[in-house]
Write the structure tokens for this entry.
Amino acid sequence: MPREPAGAAVLRPELTEAVIDAVFVELAAVGYGRLSMQKVAARAGVGKSALYRRWPGKQEMVTDVLSRLGVPDEPPPDTGSLVEDLRLLAREIRDWLTLPRLRGITPDLLAEVGRNADLAAAFRDRLAGPRRERLRPVLAAAVARGEIAEDPVAVEVVVDALASAPYWRLTVAGEDADDRYLDRLVDVLVGGLRS
């Protein structure tokens, strides 16, 4: 049975929030490449050793902090309608992508993921993978209800498109992903699933 961390290895909730804030501020200020545990500790008002007791390095610290904001704890929506469930999920993704804490650091982090295989693997395991898995039960429930046919390739397309279209629109194109846009995106995706 694994032993629970004791004493200083567990940061108090107020210190955890201070560290989370410090990670985001430092990422926005200097980017991932120049981020250091020492600067995060100083900004958070904790000793560097407190961070190292919790995380072995900055990669683990950053992916842990981002995963706390990136994947909701509650189960995915289950309204009984694929269209409504996907609309709710699309808004959730849009709202996450537009969080002020994330908006300024996402381009730098994605560039770093492209250069750093270990960071890319950690992001897939801690953030992208769980985000993708959050969509699968919604699609499986729609298959079980007879709303759509079982089609593993189509499921992958929907999982990719529901996240990438809002990201592209907001970050690359610099356009708004308002509810009207998201509703139309869902209509197009569901239409494809049903064809």
Summary: Confidence is low (pLDDT under 50) at residues 1-9. The domain at 71-194 is CATH 1.10.357.10 (Tetracycline Repressor; domain 2). The CA atoms of residues 91 and 179 lie 7 Å apart.
